[in-house]
Amino acid sequence: MIKESIVLKYQEIQKVLDEDLKLTLSHLEMEERAAVTALDLLMERNHSLIQEIEQDLARLEMVLDQNQLEAVVTHQSVDTVERVIDLLNTTDPSSVSLDEGKAEQILILTNNLLDLVHSQTPTIKKIIKSYSSKVCLDPRTAHPKLLISPDGDSVTYTDDWQDLPNIPGRFDTTLNVISLQAFSSGHHYWEVNVSGKTYWELGVTYPTISRKGTTEDCWLGRGAESWCVEYFDGDYTAWHSGLPHQLPSARPFCHIGILCSFPAGLVTFLEADEMTPLFSFSAGTFLDCLHLALCPGHNHNGNNGNPIIICNVSS
């Protein structure tokens, strides 16, 4: 029902725009017809005056002899030049024009309308960005081969194993880190920059995700506690409960959006620049709070050294 209502509203907007365009064009076309009619009348007048001048000259040639012609032509030529000048002045096509002032106002108003439409579209982009939530990464959960920026807004893989305390919340095998903040209601959206990377995983997870040992449940999306999208060697795969969902092949994206909706029980992944949907999971009802989860991946033959960066999204 909601989908049909939205479609109807878009159709009404399109109808209003089409009708306004039709009315504007009808006015412009009417003025164009008036201008063309005026030009046609000027051309007819021009043609009539030229014919009169030609007839005057012909009569002079017939009536006067050569000597008289020279005397009269001098006088007549002056009169002819004056008539030609008058003809050019009174039949100048540039004297016929459209109402340029009104046309300029129409252009200004249509530009304003375009700016307004741009400011309100794409509507889904405005809505999703309004759900942006501030997060920072929790270094206490980061695998010892992950470097977390001082502000907690990026994570980078390093070959060096850092001497960090092996506390219960730290991932010790999988290259994961989760956000300090947890969310348990409402709508939340994050964007991450994965430019230049050949391998990464990102998504959301319950705080109960396994963090120790080599069990597959420690990997994002491999257990029931987490949802993720993985990029590896040009392939995108969505994961949950160990089930892979191969996504259509596409160019390497620079920004990935993650949207979670507690009212709908949805986790949705997007190509953030154009807000193109990639994959959506329906959890029905979330059983716990959710953390943002990132895995920058290993160095992958020396080609995956770029960090994953959490973007500051303007709503």
From TrEMBL:
Protein's UniProt keywords contain Metal-binding: yes
PANTHER family: B-BOX DOMAIN CONTAINING, E3 UBIQUITIN_ISG15 LIGASE TRIM25
InterPro entries named among the record's database cross-references: B30.2/SPRY (IPR001870), B30.2/SPRY_sf (IPR043136), Butyrophylin_SPRY (IPR003879), ConA-like_dom_sf (IPR013320), E3_ubiq-ligase_TRIM/RNF (IPR051051), PRY (IPR006574), SPRY_dom (IPR003877)
Transmembrane segments: none
UniProt keyword list: Metal-binding, Zinc, Zinc-finger
Protein encoded by which gene: LOC114476961
Record's GO cellular component terms: cytoplasm
UniProt domain B30.2/SPRY: residue ranges: 115-315
The protein, known as: Probable E3 ubiquitin-protein ligase TRIML1
Alphabetized Gene3D superfamilies for the sequence: 2.60.120.920
Superkingdom of the source species: Eukaryota
A GO MF label: zinc ion binding
Entry keyword Transferase: no
